[in-house]
Amino acid sequence: MIVKVENTFKPTGSDRCMATPLLRATLIRNVRLAASAAARASPRPTRPSVSALRQHIPSKQLFTWTKKERTEKPQEEAHLLCPTMSESPHPDIRARAQRVAAIAPCPVCLDTHSQRRHVAFECPDCGWPTHCSELHWSEDPEHAKYCSRLREVNEDEHDIRSGRDVPELNFPGMQAYDEAVSFSNWDIFWFTRGFKSINTERSRRLASKMLTYPITIASVLHEHSGLTHRNQRITPEGLRSLTALRSSLHTAGNVELTSLEKAEKKPIRIFILGARSESNLPPDIWNQIGYLFPSCVVQIYLIGPQVSLPRNAKRPPPDVDMDGNGQASHVHEPQPVLPLNSSVKRTTDLLHVYGVPSYTTSAGMNVSIYGLEAYYHQVHAQFAPFDPYTDVFFAFSPGFGFPSATSPPLTQMASPTEWGQDIPMILDTKCPLFVTGFSPTDVERDVRSLDGVEGVSGEFDWILTPGINPFGSEKWEVAEFDPRVMVKTNWGIWGIRGKRRDIRQGGKGKEEEEDEDDFEGRYVKT
What we know:
This protein has 526 residues and is an alpha/beta fold. It has 17 helices and 17 strands.
């Protein structure tokens, strides 16, 4: 605002000389005082708020015109990923909640009142049925210790079924011949293998759960394995066995084979014993083994009474027990198992080949999958002869040390109807056997079960000492019989092989197998 101040003092000619600097300063001061008074009297303009200013900021700033607008699907809200299991929109999760409520005991009733009452109240924080009532849920001080893990599992299960894009499961294809893969841990493997960036913990858990079975196998057999003699995981005997296998897995150039070379090359046979959930993986997951070993033909045999089969798989007639009058007294029906993954489109029935319900399918250019619903000792003779250079056995969490279902006083390792017949046969082949466990207790229990078993105790050499598996799943798995029990698939791994013995004749030592020089000469190729 401009304020005009009229000067009423008009000096005469004699007075002009009196317009001293003091008068001039007085006039200027009066003008400034009047201007400030007028400014205080006028209304002050309001300052716009920060939110109002933000509305006028353009959405694209400088140098952002070259970037494409993202059209990503928004992430699910936390409360949508963690509902109570009985109110889940997915039928299989609701069915699991019913199974937990039917067998899991209330921890407060069991520990405090020495009563066994099934859980019926679902925790509002994690969504799992954990106690018999809200009162016992509020009185349990231990629940807070594992509630966050249960919530994590609940969110993961709903996230898998949410229908979102899953970029972490877009696996790379063939590895370039001049790019080395490192098997130190998950992060280095994903980086050197060329996986897309995995930026969230949930994505890590999902990717590690899907890949833990094939990458555990590859991490043991590959020449760049993180399990070495230097870190005291591989024993001298184990180094000999793995060197023999690697001589067949890695050839000069390590390049993909032609059709004629595949037909002439002896296949690498990987026997997975007691297969359960691993038999239901999509074939693309198993094909990662083929990408890591492009210069060989891989045959993966999934053997066990709980192997998943195609819905139209042929089965032999059921076994029938006859009574004294020649009448059927009992019919042995096969146990229901999870059907084969729907992603498997083309399968070939092999009942006429192995005599048990079985199938085969192709997982890739150099990987074939065979599924046999049988105990291993029922089909062992059909795979003979065995070669330590091309054959290897794996058992993922087999439960050697758990009580036998058919012979309760014995462990499954000692039971003649379970692992009691299988392991001695495997040791006789002199081929490596690698075993995983879901926790330190499980690994120790399985190792201890080997002692005192006829045909096993004292008949094997250690090739891989018990320890952590760097490629175990990072996702927690909750036991339905007690939600407080949580484990991680393939947490640990160890390995054994049938013992090699010397036979002495005429005072001179003669090995039953080839001597060390001949053994090394077989796998050193030029």
